[in-house]
Amino acid sequence: MTLPIGFKELNALLPGQVKANEPMARHTTWRIGGPADIFVEPAGVKELARLVTWVHGRDLPLYFIGNGSNLLVKDGGIRGIVVKIGRAFGKVQVQETTLIAGAGAMLGVLAAAAQKSGVGGLEFATGIPGTVGGAVVMNAGANGSSMADLVQEVMVMDLSGELERRNAGELGFGYRTSNLLGSSLVVLEVTCRGVARDPDQIRADMEQYLARRRASQPLSYPSAGSVFKNPPGKTAGWLIEQAGCKGMRQGDAQVSLVHANFIVNLGRATARDVQLLIHRVQQLVYERFGITLTLEVQVLGED
Ligand SMILES: Cc1cc2nc3c(=O)[nH]c(=O)nc-3n(C[C@H](O)[C@H](O)[C@H](O)COP(=O)(O)OP(=O)(O)OC[C@H]3O[C@@H](n4cnc5c(N)ncnc54)[C@H](O)[C@@H]3O)c2cc1C
């Protein structure tokens, strides 16, 4: 197989951190996705800066991902470079009620550290399987709270490798969105302000949220969580169920029998299966309610 354009140079620049034709199914919680031409997991900030400055000025698309828990990567894969912000960016610190986390830290790890130190605020995040970076970009939320309630500032890197701090007011937070989504900035570090709270009470809330998730979400199959955003005043899950879509199947993709806003991968689902199912759900909900469901999951790649 021929090596993708730029692979050799990048491999020399970042030894051991670059892969060619990497199946994205390995990097998404849906376990779906064709190959990325080039996949990089930088070993640190210096290496990331080297990478982005190398890409800058070359005509190569660049995508940043975290844990791939909100991503649908199409079967044809991704032309360009995918950069995973992972373990090398996973440091978590608690200073009084301030939480400072690398963007690659798992949200659950940060929530557990906060609990141990008696810092409340992140209880809602229990069970969200994303990185802190992905959670900020998506303004992840549950149980009536979201990242926007806690985030004070983020450190980002631009395509010239320059670091910049942005405060919460500059991030354009909205329902499952921020202005970082689709921008060329990569999030490296997030500072959150929590509140002092009894660790036992924090733990009790976290356990309750987790129990609720286990009872209401299909956690034994690969998925990307909620596929659609909730339209104003309604939940997407209710609309989908009322439109008769629960259990509907395309190949190995199925509208979950447990939670209708989840599409689960029963084994060998393709992105095409998921896309067809998404389309049918949208059609049926529109026919029944006149509402167009919009996607919460981010779609990358080509057919
Ligand atoms: C079982 C399950 C339950 C879920 N429950 C919830 C829930 O309750 N609430 C909720 O909000 N979500 C939920 N999700 C969805 C998902 O976990 C969140 O959206 C999460 O915040 C995504 O983080 P990630 O690291 O996986 O990001 P990814 O999926 O890797 O990326 C998501 C987006 O963020 C961008 N991005 C990621 N990291 C960076 C970075 N460092 N710099 C710049 N851009 C970046 C990507 O380009 C992409 O556009 C659930 C998912 C699953 C599978």
Automatic annotation (TrEMBL):
It is found in: Cytoplasm. Its cofactor is FAD. It catalyses: UDP-N-acetyl-alpha-D-muramate + NADP(+) = UDP-N-acetyl-3-O-(1-carboxyvinyl)-alpha-D-glucosamine + NADPH + H(+). The active site is at R176, S226 (proton donor), E296. Gene3D superfamilies: 3.30.465.10, UDP-N-acetylenolpyruvoylglucosamine reductase, C-terminal domain (3.90.78.10), Uridine Diphospho-n-acetylenolpyruvylglucosamine Reductase, domain 2 (3.30.43.10). The keyword Flavoprotein applies. One of its GO terms (cellular component) is cytosol. InterPro entries: FAD-bd_PCMH, FAD-bd_PCMH-like_sf, FAD-bd_PCMH_sub1, FAD-bd_PCMH_sub2, MurB, MurB_C, MurB_C_sf, Oxid_FAD_bind_N. Residues 31-197 form the FAD-binding PCMH-type domain. GO terms for molecular function: FAD binding; UDP-N-acetylmuramate dehydrogenase activity. Pfam families: FAD_binding_4 (PF01565), MurB_C (PF02873). Its main location: cytoplasm. The keyword Membrane does not apply. GO terms for biological process: cell division; cell wall organization; peptidoglycan biosynthetic process; regulation of cell shape. Keywords: Cell cycle, Cell division, Cell shape, Cell wall biogenesis/degradation, Cytoplasm, FAD, Flavoprotein, NADP, Oxidoreductase, Peptidoglycan synthesis. Pathway: Cell wall biogenesis; peptidoglycan biosynthesis. Its EC number is 1.3.1.98. NCBIfam families: murB, PRK13905.1. HAMAP family: MurB (MF_00037). Belongs to the MurB family. Cell wall formation. This is UDP-N-acetylenolpyruvoylglucosamine reductase. The gene is murB.
